[in-house]
Structures are given as structure tokens and as C-alpha cells.
Amino acid sequence: MSKPLGRPDLDKLTPVQWEQMGISREGLEKNLMRMQEREKNAPAVGDPAPDFRGRAAALVFGSYT
């Protein structure tokens, strides 16, 4: 079983690593907070599917490789 993705240890990143990532610490923290807020509205595993009748819907598939 793989380790779940979590918040990176930002204190261990070097200035070179920040430069390579192309984002500041503040920018990354802001993005992580925004993602956490969005996740609160996501359905949990096992929840019934939402009713999209009469509304446009898009399915987005992705993967981490």
C-alpha cells in the first residue's frame, strides 16, 4: 500500500528547489489552502451521485504518474 499524499515539509525545501518549482512558499501555501477548501465540497466515497438532470455536466478524469 502506498503512502497517501500529504502536505510537503516546506521547511526542508532549499532555495534552488523553490526556484525549480517556480512558485513561492506563500503561493504554494495559498494553493494548498484553496485545494483543501474545495475538497470539503467534494462527495465522499460511497455518497450517491448528484442529480444532473436539466443541467450541463462535465466529467474530469486525471491521474498522478
Question: What report would you give on this structure?
Answer:
By secondary structure, the protein is mainly α. It has a domain at 10-39. 34% of the residues lie in helices and 0% in strands. It is built from two helices and no strands. The chain has helices at residues 15-21, 25-39. The longest helix has 15 residues, at 25-39. The radius of gyration is 17 Å and the shape is elongated. It starts with 14 loop residues before the first helix and ends in a 26-residue tail after the last helix.
Please provide a brief summary of the model.
By secondary structure, this protein is an all-alpha fold. It is built from 2 helices and no strands. The radius of gyration is 17 Å and the shape is elongated.
Number of extended strands: 0
**Strand content range:** under 5%
Mean pLDDT: 84
**What does the overall shape look like?**
elongated
Percent of residues in helical segments?
25-40%
User: Count the helices. How many?
Assistant: 2
Low-confidence stretches: none
Topology, element by element:
Elements: H1 15-21, H2 25-39
Task: Give keywords.
elongated; mainly alpha; 2 helices; 65 residues; single chain
